[in-house]
Give the backbone structure.
Amino acid sequence: MEQTQTKWVTNYKNVTVRMTDGSTVKGKINIKEFQRLSLLFKTTPDTFIPVVSEEGSNKVSIINKNYILCAESED
């Protein structure tokens, strides 16, 4: 049997995400093979986006794209 390896593309961007309820989430989003954050939101069929905390902890927030008011890339 031939084993296949899945290669994950990692390209993290620092972001600030403002939610429709007024809360703000800061962290890093893996935009994968996309060049810009906006392309990730436009083209991916995923409803939920993981945001890795920027405080150095291993905290991950899973946010629903339908409740994002705006997302700003910091780099």
Summary: The radius of gyration is 14 Å. The CA atoms of residues 13 and 46 lie 18 Å apart. The chain has a mean pLDDT of 89. The helical segments are 37-43.
